[in-house]
Amino acid sequence: xxxxxxxxxxxxxxxxxxxxxxxxxxxxxxxxxxxxxxxxxxxxxxxxxxxxxxxxxxxxxxxxxxxxxxxxxxxxxxxxxxxxxxxxxxxxxxxxxxxxxxxxxxxxxxxxxxxxxxxxxxxxxxxxxxxxxxxxxxxxxxxxxxxxxxxxxxxxxxxxxxxxxxxxxxxxxxxxxxxxxxxxxxxxxxxxxxxxxxxxxxxxxxxxxxxxxxxxxxxxxxxxxxxxxxxxxx
Length: 234
Hints:
Number of strands: 5
Order of helices and strands: EEEHHEHEHHHHHH
């Protein structure tokens, strides 16, 4: 299964107020393993950046003045995302901004291209009543986030990928089964599994202790010792 762990940084909090994406990053996973492929772009938002937002990610309009606009990278981004399951922490926020940007360039929304899974909702279901920010999850799953002095889409996507893999480790066997079910029959020829079985036999002393224990259980249970019954039946 192909997944993309995705994150964005923005000029503010509300796309409905004209705020824009200034950084977008995605890390590709295939069958729960990083493929080495990723998408990462800084973008010129063509507007001012809220001071509060700059305090979070450290980017200013001057930093981004020479960067491409979203329209310049839209086709490349959509090609990278096409058909994947997107893993996003607090997905409504990022999807809202992506859909607003796509609408500006006359493209359909993300839901027409991908499925979206909200890792924040997953974390809340897994750890109810606890903090489930990315930093809190990094601490919970021993993911090193010491370089995260500021938010950044690429770094946050990398951290989220590590967190998601740790948080969903129990799903690994299910993913393998699903991949096998989707694969052509010709690819499912599996080598037989052979295991060396070591047999440890009881010593005479251990057998004598076992018989004595069975006799005691038989007396105390008035003849209802399962081991004695099986021995007589055999």
